[in-house]
Q: What sequence folds into this?
């Protein structure tokens, strides 16, 4: 590996939201990253190739690498085989990064490529950064670490237990209750230049947004995948006088047709909608999703937020209590705490909607 006197920085991204955060950190010169930084886009999301190409066109990173996971039978090939030699299970458009020695590596999750970058650059400082709700509570590296390997790694301080993190950067430190042993700092709020750059990268059209003309927004999720869901259909809880003015942001895997609603067919990235178009006058309705919290986390906006998880659950279980905890924490960072509402009945929900519709 070629040694370089320059302090090289590597940003590893597995999702569009991670890319958004990394570009913002770069433009804000977090940890001196404005120069001598490379970006690695891992092909794990829809449209990754197109976004990769648009990032390269902006010439803000020294290099942008496209990382493609190889397909292999995980049942036949033991995990130790994939860990023994870094990058064994990935293909690249350009292998020149292997000749570099990165002094800082930014990762947002436990994705295998990020861990490989740590193994390959053993002297590098590792920085965590915002990946949504998992970055704000518990320890997403170890909380889901199970099986014999966990106890072996814990005893020998190997694997995930060997990782030490220099810092964690999140958009809203006041909301962060991570148990990861590291210092938490704020990702700077993007300035207008950075926002315009992000809009180019994600092909975001501010003017064609449906969000600006619709105050009430329902953020869909796969309710049938929630064990405690009581089966109440979303169109049954809205009053007929309001339902036709509700904009629905459909979940990518949703089977619902939402025939009585206005369905948002605009592909604009939700996180950028939160930065550019969501205002305090909006009403965000949903079971209990990260999307409802995003405006406060990344844009410091305070729209009305209505969580439906108690109304749409069969009983108060442990997951309900966890959601209650998230709501209370959100209230802690909201200046106008009355803007957060959790109805227990359809009647309570409909009464609140009548009040908000008349504002």
A:
């Amino acid at each position: 590996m070629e040694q370089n006197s320059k302090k090289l920085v590597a940003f590893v991204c597995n999702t569009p939201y991670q890319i958004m955060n990394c570009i913002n950190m770069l433009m804000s010169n977090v940890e001196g990253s404005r120069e001598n930084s490379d970006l690695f886009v891992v092909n794990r999301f829809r449209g990754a190739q197109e976004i990769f190409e648009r990032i390269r066109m902006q010439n803000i990173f020294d290099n942008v690498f496209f990382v493609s996971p190889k397909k292999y039978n995980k049942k036949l090939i033991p995990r130790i085989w994939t860990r023994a030699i870094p990058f064994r299970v990935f293909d690249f458009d350009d292998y020149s990064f292997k000749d570099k020695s990165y002094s800082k590596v930014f990762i947002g999750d436990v994705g295998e490529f990020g861990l490989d970058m740590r193994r390959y650059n053993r002297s590098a400082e590792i920085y965590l950064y915002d990946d949504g709700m998992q970055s704000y509570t518990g320890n997403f590296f170890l909380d889901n670490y199970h099986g014999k390997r966990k106890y072996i790694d814990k005893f020998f301080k190997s694997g995930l237990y060997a990782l030490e993190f220099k810092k964690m950067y999140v958009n809203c430190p006041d909301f962060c209750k991570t148990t990861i042993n590291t210092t938490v700092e704020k990702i700077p709020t993007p300035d207008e230049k950075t926002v315009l750059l992000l809009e180019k990268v994600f092909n975001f059209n501010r003017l064609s947004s449906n969000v600006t003309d619709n105050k009430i927004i329902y953020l869909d999720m796969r309710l049938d995948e929630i064990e405690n869901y009581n089966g109440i259909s979303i169109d049954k809880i809205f009053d007929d006088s309001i339902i036709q003015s509700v904009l629905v942001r459909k979940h990518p895997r949703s089977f619902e047709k939402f025939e009585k609603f206005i369905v948002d067919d605009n592909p604009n990235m939700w996180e950028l909608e939160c930065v550019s178009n969501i205002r305090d006058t909006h009403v965000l309705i949903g079971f209990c999703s990260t999307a409802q919290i995003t405006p406060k986390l990344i844009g410091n906006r305070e729209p009305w937020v209505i969580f439906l998880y108690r109304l749409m659950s069969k009983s108060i279980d442990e997951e309900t209590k966890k959601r209650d905890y998230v709501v209370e924490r959100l209230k802690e960072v909201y200046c106008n705490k009355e803007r957060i509402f959790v109805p227990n009945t359809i009647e309570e929900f409909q009464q609140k909607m009548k009040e908000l519709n008349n504002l």
About this structure: The chain has a mean pLDDT of 90.
